[in-house]
């Protein structure tokens, strides 16, 4: 690694001012991606602006039909404090990485990095969440913009995520054993307006909604409704861990299993007919 200045402002305003004064500065959230990147000299900012001491960016608050999660809230805190209101989201957070990662990594850092195999993007996309920043509000549909790319402008900081709570939801992933990132992960959420299915770890362009599955499950919420469907393998990624055909198979299998889990465990009347 190389010499880099780290500053720990106490307010969002101070953090924004520091970034404006140092065009080469970068935001440091949990550091679970940025620190390894710096160690490999793939990035070389002169200044890191840590968000860890900004109290207003931490915590999970409950509003009618919605959770508001501060961007600097750790995965471990989401796993604990969202468990009652949104069990599927809490379970997702509790399955990220290992205890060290969960106690340092943050939801805002994960979303800003937009790793194509990260878990949170599937949750916020399936939930129809809104990403709140220092400048505006961005719908999840408009936020993710390809691999490791988002709609965030230079110097813009995620401050919170507003997550609507569905009637029922489930998240299943097939994890790469070493990293615990998803070779494929599927989040299924059931709202009054319909079913939403978001896929991570598999899309050639990052997280995406599987709209054909949503339409099939809207017609009949049953694993067998997915039987005739097949993902376009040309839009599925392949790497040393798994090829497109294998990932496409995993996505369909995980979606079927998520639907089956919901049918077995959801409260009566929670699911569409």
From TrEMBL:
Residues 1-168 form the FAD-binding PCMH-type domain. GO terms for molecular function: FAD binding; oxidoreductase activity. It comes from Poseidonocella sedimentorum. PANTHER family: XANTHINE DEHYDROGENASE SUBUNIT C-RELATED (PTHR42659:SF2). This is Carbon-monoxide dehydrogenase medium subunit. Pfam families: FAD_binding_5 (PF00941). InterPro entries: CO_DH_flav_C, CO_DH_flav_C_dom_sf, Diverse_Substr_Oxidored, FAD-bd_PCMH, FAD-bd_PCMH-like_sf, FAD-bd_PCMH_sub1, FAD-bd_PCMH_sub2, Mopterin_DH_FAD-bd. The lineage of its organism: Bacteria, Pseudomonadati, Pseudomonadota, Alphaproteobacteria, Rhodobacterales. Keywords: FAD, Flavoprotein, Oxidoreductase.
């Amino acid at each position: 690694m190389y010499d880099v200045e780290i500053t720990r402002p106490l307010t969002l305003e101070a953090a924004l001012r520091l970034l404006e004064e140092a065009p080469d500065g970068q935001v440091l959230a949990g550091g679970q991606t940025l620190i390894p990147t710096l160690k490999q000299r793939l990035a070389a900012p002169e200044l890191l602006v840590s968000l860890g001491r900004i109290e207003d960016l931490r915590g999970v608050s409950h509003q009618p039909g919605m959770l508001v999660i501060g961007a600097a809230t750790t995965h471990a805190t989401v796993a604990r404090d969202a468990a009652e209101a949104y069990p599927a989201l809490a379970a997702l957070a509790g399955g990220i990485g290992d205890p060290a990662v969960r106690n340092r990594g943050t939801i805002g850092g994960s979303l800003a990095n937009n790793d194509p195999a990260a878990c949170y993007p599937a949750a916020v996309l399936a939930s129809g969440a809104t990403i709140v920043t220092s400048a505006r509000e961005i719908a999840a549909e408009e936020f993710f913009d390809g691999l490791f790319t988002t709609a965030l402008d230079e110097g813009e900081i995620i401050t919170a995520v507003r997550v609507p709570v569905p009637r029922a939801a489930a998240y299943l992933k097939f994890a790469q054993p070493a990293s615990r990132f998803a070779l494929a992960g599927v989040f299924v959420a059931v709202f009054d307006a319909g079913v939403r299915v978001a896929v991570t770890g598999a899309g050639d362009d990052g997280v995406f909604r599987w709209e054909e599955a949503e339409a099939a499950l809207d017609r009949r919420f049953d694993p067998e409704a997915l039987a005739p469907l097949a993902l376009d393998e040309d839009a599925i990624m392949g790497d040393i861990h798994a090829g497109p055909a294998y990932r496409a198979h995993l996505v369909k299998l995980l979606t079927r299993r998520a639907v089956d889990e919901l049918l077995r465990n959801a409260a009566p009347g929670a699911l569409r007919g």
